[in-house]
Amino acid sequence: MSKPIKNNPWYWVPPLYLTEGIPYVLIITVSVIMYKKLGVDNADIGLYTSLLYLPWVVKPLWSPLVDIYSTKRKWFLGMQLLLSLAFLGVGLSIPTNQFFVLSLACFWVASFASATNDIASDGFYLLALKEEQQSFFIGLRSTFYRVAMVTGQGLFVILAGYLEVKFGDNTKAWSLTMVLVAALMFVLTLINYWTTPNIEKSSSYEKEKSLGFLDVFATFFRKKEVWLALAFILLYRLGESQLVKMASPFLLDDREVGGLALSTGDVGLIYGTFGIVALSVGGIIGGIVISKDGLGKWMLPMILSLNVPNFFYYLLAYFQPESTFYAGLVVVIEQLGYGFGFAAFMMYLIYVAEGPSKTSHYAIATGFMALGMMIPGMASGFVQEWLGYEGFFLWVVFAAVPGLLMVKYVKYPYDYGKNKSKPTK
């Protein structure tokens, strides 16, 4: 059987980033909802699910191996197959007496496989596309990555909620849901096998292979003002990193403890319908405007759009409206702003990775991005239990200030990502 060799990003970017996003959201976000419905408390949820970020934090340690050995396409296909097996393990472990430990172990395997899949997939993206293509497709890439996240947090949660009602048993419902996730991952692996082209015999690929293991790290940390860049990466989502862990528990918790008492199906429906549209629109617009004007013009508006909508969660916690309309409206606003604002963040990470061995350098940059999500997320459950939901969401809003202040100091070409092939007026 022959493989298609034409490098048409419209064919392979959507399924590749759909496959990259689904494991991440299942491990980091849907696990929160699952453990909440299986009776685990907020402090343990925040701590142990945030520790699952660790493979994304330390993935730079083995990212040179992806550069040096084999091709990135073979790496991400192998990891996607391993992910389908890991999620099958999660599903089969849930009905056991030691479900928490066993399911966490399977999630750990999935985390390492997903982090490695990210290295290979992102490296493939950087090698296969030119700079102007990268900025144009960053919107499509981010959109399908976020579509994957909302698919997991939306459609799979809706399914789990339906099965909870059907079976009257949360354990059975979530077990079957995770088995179906495993089946979907296997199907997506086959799709990526057929849609991704063989492009890794180019000179850029050979140049990356020629660098030594330690040289990869040395060249990254010798970049100009790299520590300032890494500080900005750590702080860009300081508020969001805490919000993402406690948003679903807030929507699910009883009103007596400050939550909105929504059902599992309601939460899935909100994220899986209105949220997905808002997120898609925000991500596509973000990629288009950066491609048109460059990163410099949009960095501040985009980081504001990512953080300002978090204030509306405070309003939800303060007023505790009974109608699900208001919760849905807040999710739409937050997802629209997140999709738009995340495009600038991803484009900045690509800029930081510029130079030799860009695949590994991008992995290092995204490793720091994951660290910026992991550490605040680990504390989020304890902070929420200490401050309550109202105080917690106010803290989330103020946590965005350091990242906003740093926008003035980080350096990058003003027109970075701009499509220079178009004539200027």
If you had to describe this structure to a student in words, what would you say it looks like?
The chain has helices at 9-37, 42-51, 54-58, 63-68, 72-93, 99-128, 131-167, 170-195, 203-210, 213-221, 226-235, 238-252, 264-272, 274-293, 295-307, 311-319, 324-352, 358-398, 401-406. Helix 2 (42-51) packs antiparallel against helix 18. With 425 residues, it is mainly alpha-helical. It is 79% helix and 0% strand. Mean pLDDT is 87; it is low at 1-5 and 202-208.
Number of helices: 19
**N to C succession of SSEs:** HHHHHHHHHHHHHHHHHHH
Average pLDDT level: 87
Q: Stretches where pLDDT falls below 50 for ≥5 residues?
A: 1-5, 202-208
Largest sheet: none
Helix content: over 70%
Q: Determine Rg (CA atoms, Å).
A: 21 Å
Shape: globular
| Separation, N- and C-terminal Cα atoms | 49 Å
Class from secondary-structure proportions: mainly alpha
Percentage of residues in DSSP E strands: under 5%
